[in-house]
Protein 1
Amino acid sequence: MKPTPSRDQTDRADEILLLTVDQVSAALQCGVKRVYNLISERRIPSVRLGRRVYVPRHLLRSWLDAEAVLPPGMERSGFSPTCEEPLQTSPQD
């Protein structure tokens, strides 16, 4: 049984720069083996530190943004996945 993370650990979760394969697997809701395959195919950016493989958090987000299939009529240049609505590219009247 895993110990419950302390409040300090959960507050620092957003500060984590490198994600483990298990964390990426949980975030993408897919198997660990699939994540390793995506990494070996160089589809997901990764960093090796010794024998361990990590995925930089910001590169995983960028990869997801690039892989997203957008609905027809929504251009990637005006879309911000961090916002609920597309960015305004010109002032509205």
Protein 2
Amino acid sequence: MKDMFEAIGELIAAQPALLAERELARRIAEKRLTIDPWKHRSSGMLCSTCMWFVQKVSDNPGGTEIGRCRRHAPTMNGYPVVFRTDWCGDHKLDENKLKEPASG
């Protein structure tokens, strides 16, 4: 009978440690939800480097930041308008659109 009471006492004594572990696990899970694991992966997959992206020709010297995505057939409204900084899952790298590395 005493062994059972000792076991219950040990469980009660271990309760704060279990609560601390649960709290730690909860905080870790919350942290994971706030971190975007895809943030760095899309940096090189922008529309500006995609072979399907056609930049709009502009008369302004500053240029324009929009273009058309020609990945899929046009709809009744034409090809979708996209920004150079947009990205999607259909990205296909166009090596000709990559910036040349600065030679120093």
Protein 3
Amino acid sequence: MRIDPQVSIGANAKLGPNVYLESGAHIGQGAVIWDSVILSNASVADDALIHDQIVGRRLRISEEVGDDARTLPSGGPDWQGRLDARRKDDPKA
């Protein structure tokens, strides 16, 4: 595990193994992260479950994306509407 300076980690967050948190990353309360990289200035939501992923400020790269509602990007105000529309078109989304 590697944690750069200026990383904030919320209460009851669980990290590791194989976690790298770059400078300026914010980890929400109760988040669980393993086998992942959280890039500079990225935010992980409270109670998020992150595994085998690269999380950036406005992106999330993974083989299989889990519950989108638990890891919210720092997108614009219409992000939730676009996600809901995508789910209607593709039930797997």
Protein 4
Amino acid sequence: MPRLCSGQMLRAFGLTEPEAGSDAGNTQTRARLDGDEWVINGSKQFITNAGTDISGLVVITVVTSADGERRREISNIVVHAKLANIATEIESCRLLVQKAAWLKDRGQNHR
């Protein structure tokens, strides 16, 4: 966090997708929980602040609800830029879950 606050590191934002554009409600990139890891699959383009020498984190929008769930759940996940490789294709990117103490169970934070 200190590097972000001091401007030594940038946070990138990945919303736009080839098929969905910048419509968050039509996000196609999916993330599923597999044990203690999120598995992310999808495509992003035009990632704001990506590709610089100081890009460190990427916040990406993903669908986290399971197929067939009544309510479509869209979440933001923070990915280390090197892990995501600031690529347009994100395939089977695996992230270890580090749940913050203040977070409630999945889907309960904004109800």
